[in-house]
Amino acid sequence: MNGFAKRAELIREKIKKTVLEMLKTWEPRKIRIADIAAEARVSQVTIYNYFGSKESLLREAFKDYMEKSFADFEAFIATGPTMKEIVQYSLFYDKEAIHAYSPDFFREFLVDDREMYEYMERIYRDRAMPLVVRFIEEGKKRGEISSKLSTPTLVMYFNMFKDQSKTILDMAQQSGDPEAFVEEIIRLFYYGVCGEDR
């Protein structure tokens, strides 16, 4: 990569990082290119030249966020955690994400934007699901997941939660305490209605 290409890539990364920071306090629909340009200290023309449109920029920034999140999760999984540690990690991640970004942020990208929805479906199908199946099989071997439950049934259970993501995001926002709501949902997911680790 020559000097010009390196500078261009640094500018692109700076703009995407700026957008992700802005999304912590701004609703995606209300952000304008002029606002992004001012925050990133670049011209609006630069943003249009690199990304073409606000929508494309937001999608690229969100994809970067998701790729980093998934890479972090894969690195965590490589350490060989227990199922309980995986749930705790997920809980911590979800609480951090909800603290940093509003449910509107996730709803707009994961539910309302068809292109991003399809992108997330590919990530889930091609990368996340193989990990889920592996978690299940390893969890059964360690006795952390009931051997009476088949892997296809457990995958269906995971998919039920995923398919209700819009409802969960709406309810988290309406609850008045999104972090506590997410903690309860994950506890319900892992422990069921008995609500305790046995």
From TrEMBL:
HTH tetR-type domain residues: 9-69
Protein name: TetR/AcrR family transcriptional regulator
SUPFAM superfamilies per UniProt: Homeodomain-like, Tetracyclin repressor-like, C-terminal domain
Originating species: Cohnella xylanilytica
Keywords carried by this UniProt record: DNA-binding
Keyword hit for Ubl conjugation: no
GO molecular function: DNA binding
First and last residue of the signal peptide: none
Feature: DNA-binding region: 32-51
PROSITE patterns per UniProt: HTH_TETR_2 (PS50977)
Pfam families, sorted: TetR_N (PF00440)
The organism's place on the tree of life at top rank: Bacteria
